[in-house]
Amino acid sequence: MSVCARSTSVPRWDAERLLSDPDGRYFTVASFGNRAHTDAQQVVGEHSGHRVSWLKLGPQWSAATSAVLQREFAAARVGWRLIVIGAEIEVLQARSAAIAAGAIPAEILTYVTGDAQRRVYCVHCRHVHQTDTPVGALSPCPRCRTDLFVYHHVSRRYGAYLGFMADAEEQ
Fold it and tell me: Which pTM was predicted?
């Protein structure tokens, strides 16, 4: 299936890599795992002169991660920016959580260090699962057992790729 860049919502992480915002007054840097911590150290250094809090988080999303970020979101005020550094799966989840907490997309800056894993949202049972299946391939939904086509669309609200029945026309 051919998809052009204008008709897909799959992030182009290199083009979206924005680690500086001249309008930001204070920043929260959230880094996931050791690889991201190294990159985050440079980002923190580049924001000297601003108020910066650095959250060194584990390599995978957890309830504790969510709780820490929710406290940051609750304390955010005008001029706050969130910089998320890590694997695509954690970056999308952190971005999704920030949007749900009231942040706007312009306040969230991203830096993705890898995209081997992705979350897929099943439109049939609304279950979200994690997979290493590439975009454009099939991934079985663990809940409803439907073979899902991992589509070229990312819901930034859910932090997941869209998955739908691969052979729906034939059913």
Answer: 0.83
Q: What are the CA-CA distances from residue 56 to residues 7, 28, 29, 61 (Å)?
A: 35, 11, 8, 12
102: number of Cβ within 10 Å: 10
Q: What percent of the chain has pLDDT over 70?
A: 86
- Write the pLDDT tens digit of every residue in 69-126: 999 999 999 999 999 999 999 999 999 999 999 999 889 988 988 888 999 999 999 9
Side by side, which strands form the sheet with 51-57? 51-57, 26-32, 80-87, 108-114
Condensed to tens digits (0 to 9), the pLDDT of residues 33-63 reads 999 999 999 989 888 788 999 999 999 999 9
Domains by residue range for the chain, with CATH:
13-114 (3.40.50.80), 118-170 (no CATH)
Positive or negative, the Cα torsion across 97, 102, 106, 109?
negative
